[in-house]
Write a structure and sequence with these properties.
Elements: H1 4-22, E1 39-44, H2 49-67, H3 82-100, E2 101-105, E3 111-116, H4 124-138, E4 146-152, E5 154-157, H5 160-174, H6 180-184, E6 187-195, H7 202-210, E7 219-220, E8 227-234, E9 237-243, H8 254-257, H9 261-284, H10 292-309
Parallel strand pairs: 6-7, 6-8
Antiparallel strand pairs: 1-3, 1-4, 2-3, 5-9, 8-9
């Protein structure tokens, strides 16, 4: 009996396993980053995407209300039933938060998109920067499940043609060719991420954006950029953002930013200790010892060479020497 059907079933089973690994069972083709939207792509604990999205919305809502205190004003509680007033306040709070942010499942494990519904500021880059800076200052992430934030300022369809067009707009708005910034030049880098993306080559996508930026006066600086272009391709949508503190804020990894200093020092100490132990082991390693056979064989070869150089008495050649090791 042929083994081909078994191999086919095995390949299909592996394919289904891979799909389950990256795509939740309740994912939809409509999931992802909506075209024309702006917001924050959230990397979080797998299987907890909905809870992580609500945690992220809590963090961003607090930052929004800090800039717009009038939006956080509580309704009047004078008169009426206390339970009814409390229920009305909770409902009002839910409606308020829905009007500010809305989260979209992406259909991909450990990733959710929080869309900004209000116009104006604070925008996605400012929200992410302030949330990360607050985590670094307080050593508290403000969330248990969120790991990293990626701001998305604009979007386009994930094709090289559309990415090239969006890159031209980005270059024109953020990397001007006239004025003070053009005179001094902007040093920049590109951070590219993709999830369940179509067959796009990484360098093709990066070049489709970077080739629109005039160099000089601007130039690439991967080690210490003044601005970083974030490109996130998720399914059929490509998101863009330009930020200035990506590396300083540990690539917006809110978990690392909230790590207490003593833990950081302990980890650094462990790393240094391991490195020193490895160096010490290399230094103390004894030189290789030649075996008796190797030493004996070397001596025999030297004797043979000496015999060849010194002819025997009477001018005849030295007799052949046989080595026995």
């Amino acid at each position: 009996m042929s083994e081909a059907p078994n191999r086919k079933r095995g390949a299909e089973g592996q394919s289904r396993a891979n799909k389950r690994k990256y795509f939740p069972s309740n994912s939809s083709k409509k999931d992802g980053i909506p075209l024309g939207s702006r917001g924050i792509l959230v990397s979080c604990a797998g299987g907890k995407e909905n809870i992580a999205a609500r945690e992220a919305i809590d963090v961003f809502t607090q930052l929004y209300e800090a800039d717009h205190p009038e939006s956080a004003a509580a309704p009047s509680t004078s008169g009426g039933d206390v339970a009814a007033l409390l229920a009305a306040e909770v409902a009002d709070l839910k409606d308020h938060r829905k009007s500010l942010f809305y989260y979209h499942p992406t259909g991909i494990h450990s990733t959710v998109f929080v869309e900004i519904k209000y116009p104006g500021s604070p925008g996605p880059c400012e929200l992410v920067s302030r949330a990360c800076e607050a985590a670094r200052q307080s050593r508290r992430a403000g969330t248990k499940l969120c790991n990293r934030f990626y701001p998305v300022e604009s979007t386009c369809y994930a094709s090289l043609e559309k990415i090239r067009e969006a890159g031209a707009t980005l270059a024109r708005e953020r990397f001007p060719t006239t004025g003070a910034e053009a005179k001094e030049g902007i040093q920049f880098a590109v951070q590219y991420e993709h999830r369940a993306a179509p067959g796009l080559d990484r360098m093709d996508v990066i070049n489709a954006v970077v080739n629109n930026i005039k160099t000089p006066p601007h130039k690439v600086n991967l080690s210490a950029p003044q601005k970083t272009i974030l490109i996130n391709v998720l399914k059929t949508t490509c998101g863009f953002a330009v930020v200035e503190d990506f590396k300083q804020l540990l690539k917006y990894n809110i978990r690392l930013l909230a790590t207490p200093p003593e833990e950081e020092e302990a980890k650094e100490g462990e790393g240094k200790a391991k490195a020193e132990d490895a160096e010490g082991a290399d230094e103390e390693q004894p030189a290789p010892v030649e075996s008796a056979a190797e030493v004996s064989e070397e001596k025999v070869e030297q004797e043979v060479e000496a015999g060849k150089d010194e002819p025997a008495a009477g001018g005849s050649e030295a007799p052949e020497t046989k080595a026995h090791v």
